[in-house]
Amino acid sequence: MKKEYQKPVVACTDINKGKIISNSEEYEDKMRHQSWMTKGKGREIIWLLAEKFRTNPEFIYREIAGEFVLIPSGETARQFNGLASLNKTGVFLWKLLEQERTLKELSIAFAEEYELTEEQSLEDVTAFLELALTRKLIIRS
Q1: Which residues, including other chains, have CB under 8 Å from residue 16's CB and lie 6 or more apart?
Q2: Are the C-beta atoms of 104 and 125 separated by less than 8 Å?
Q3: Residue among 102, 95, 14 at smallest CA distance from 62
Q4: What 3-state class would DSSP assign to 10?
Q5: In 3-state terms, what secondary structure has residue 131?
Q6: 6: nearest Cα among 104, 127, 103, 88
Q7: β-pair partners for 69
Q8: Between the N and C ends of the chain, which has fewer C-beta atoms within 10 Å?
Q9: How far apart are CA 68 and CA 87, in angstroms?
Q10: Pick from 119, 141, 134: which is nearest to 10 by CA?
């Protein structure tokens, strides 16, 4: 049975700026105009398929009242100034990233789980990783 598919979304609140930043299409224009997103990052990132990623251990994953949130702790709590939330497909990627994974490994697992083409999976996982890396939700290993 095919699982219900949505693009994986990570949305970050920035309390100081009073904004929500997300990798979803709805927020794409906002992302383009954020200075922290345009400093050599965004769609120009060149991914090495062998590069490994993992969750930032300073973010604690919790399901609260049906919502999936990442709560910053430690030094990250002072710098992050908000919370991050995930949708169900974002949670799937987050759980995979609890162990070191390459973009290729993530993309293959995502495609298999949601019965996607390689191209669609790679595009969706890359968009998720771009924002998660920029906001330091995940780190390079």
Answers
A1: 81
A2: no
A3: 95
A4: strand
A5: helix
A6: 88
A7: 62, 85
A8: N
A9: 7
A10: 134
Name the one residue in this structure whose structure tokens are 């009242």. 65
Report which of 92, 68, 71 is spatially closest to residue 83, judged by C-alpha positions: 71
One-letter identity of residue 22: S
CA 38/CA 29 separation, integer angstroms: 12
pLDDT tens digits for range 28-63: 444 444 443 334 444 434 455 678 999 999 999 999
Residue tagged 């993309």 (tokens): 107
Which residue is listed with tokens 């002072």? 78
Between CA 95 and CA 44 the distance in angstroms is 26
Structure tokens, 38: 């345009």
Q: What is the mean pLDDT of each run of 10 residues along the chain (141 residues)?
A: 70 62 53 40 49 95 92 89 89 97 94 93 91 92 87
Give the CA angle between residues 124, 16, 90 to the nearest 5°.
20
Number of other CB atoms surrounding residue 78 within 10 Å: 8
Domains and CATH numbers, the chain: 10-43+50-140 (3.90.930)
